[in-house]
């Protein structure tokens, strides 16, 4: 599934001749930024970080592509739950593509500059695919709620058209959120210095480089948008699982309860990992923090979480694991299957 940029992007964020950007009345004197990132770490550690993150990145791509190929090739997996899983894998691939290649390049480079336009693009795509991921996790929670709490109405509520609409609205919601956040931040004036204390163009370190009376307003507005979106998704997932648990507890047999819960185990685990790491990063107590510690903590949700997601879905979902094994064996020994 592709997610195109709106027709108005990037004219409203395009650089002005002789300036970094012209945004209405605001003019920025900064034409490029420096991503500090891992440059504060000892140089002898950088090749090790590069190799580790490269392997995790390749495994993330391979795992998600394998999930998508398995769902595509196995007709038994052509159900709403696995349609949503394919959409989730797509968003994870694109999310890591927006962040990790740049991170890997900077680990081996002595020049870690990024242009104003490239910085704005990275922020837009990372927020778009990141929020799309959260919205899709919410949709998957709703799918499990309908399957367990209203099984007789499942085919009606989760019709092909209804599923397509849910996926489409998840991508629209992610794109709108990314556009709103990026436009708000890059309408600010950046007067220097131009060092971003992060390995990607993220909102908090960029706001520290902005000047003008609008900065506090933008900071509160962007924070409110992000918190409302993420908290809304989290609350909807919690509500879905509250009804799911209540329904499962009413199932008389232990085997029935186990079977019902097993269909939710992989999704629930990914949700816990996703919001758990995000909470550690964003809800950490305020105070003096070393740049190295902040950088490693940011790796948890930009590299580690996408890396763990396909592993969890492959190992915790018995039906998918069986189908992946069957598909793999069919490729190796076509005559024996």
From TrEMBL:
One of its GO terms (molecular function) is olfactory receptor activity. Residues 63-313 form the G-protein coupled receptors family 1 profile domain. It is a multi-pass membrane protein. GO terms for cellular component: plasma membrane. InterPro entries: GPCR_Rhodpsn, GPCR_Rhodpsn_7TM, Olfact_rcpt. It comes from the Eukaryota. SUPFAM superfamilies: Family A G protein-coupled receptor-like. It is found in: Cell membrane. The chain crosses the membrane at residues 45-69, 81-104, 124-142, 163-190, 222-249, 261-283, 295-315. Its main location: membrane. The keyword Nuclease does not apply. Keywords: Cell membrane, Disulfide bond, G-protein coupled receptor, Membrane, Olfaction, Receptor, Sensory transduction, Transducer, Transmembrane, Transmembrane helix. The keyword Methyltransferase does not apply. Putative odorant or sperm cell receptor. This is Olfactory receptor 10h1-like.
């Amino acid at each position: 599934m592709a997610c195109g940029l709106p027709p108005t992007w990037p004219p409203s964020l395009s650089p002005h001749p002789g300036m970094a950007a012209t945004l209405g009345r605001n003019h920025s004197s900064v034409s490029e930024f420096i991503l500090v990132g891992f440059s504060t770490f000892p140089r002898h550690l950088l090749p090790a970080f590069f190799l580790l993150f490269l392997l995790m990145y390749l495994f993330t791509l391979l795992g998600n592509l394998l999930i998508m190929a398995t769902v595509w090739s196995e007709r038994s997996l052509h159900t709403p739950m696995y349609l949503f899983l394919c959409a989730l894998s797509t968003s994870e691939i694109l999310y890591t593509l927006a962040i990790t290649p740049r991170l890997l390049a900077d680990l081996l480079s002595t020049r870690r500059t990024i242009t104003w336009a490239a910085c704005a693009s990275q922020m837009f795509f990372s927020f778009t695919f990141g929020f799309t991921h959260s919205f899709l996790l919410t949709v998957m929670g709703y799918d499990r709620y309908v399957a367990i709490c209203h099984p007789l109405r499942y085919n009606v509520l989760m019709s092909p058209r209804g599923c397509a609409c849910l996926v489409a609205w998840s991508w629209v919601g992610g794109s709108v959120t990314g556009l709103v956040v990026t436009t708000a931040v890059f309408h600010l004036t950046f007067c220097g210095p131009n060092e971003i204390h992060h390995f990607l163009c993220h909102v908090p370190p960029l706001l520290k480089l902005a000047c003008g009376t609008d900065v506090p307003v933008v900071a509160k507005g962007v924070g409110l948008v992000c918190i409302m979106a993420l908290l809304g998704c989290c609350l909807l997932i919690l509500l879905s699982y509250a009804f799911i648990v209540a329904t499962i507890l009413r199932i008389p047999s232990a085997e029935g309860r186990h079977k019902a819960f097993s269909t939710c185990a992989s999704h629930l685990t990914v949700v816990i990992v996703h919001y758990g790491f995000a909470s550690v990063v964003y809800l950490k107590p305020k105070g003096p923090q070393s740049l190295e510690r902040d950088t490693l903590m940011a790796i948890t949700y930009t590299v580690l979480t996408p890396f763990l997601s396909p592993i969890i879905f492959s190992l915790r979902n018995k039906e998918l694991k069986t189908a992946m094994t069957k598909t793999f064996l069919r490729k190796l020994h076509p005559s024996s299957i």
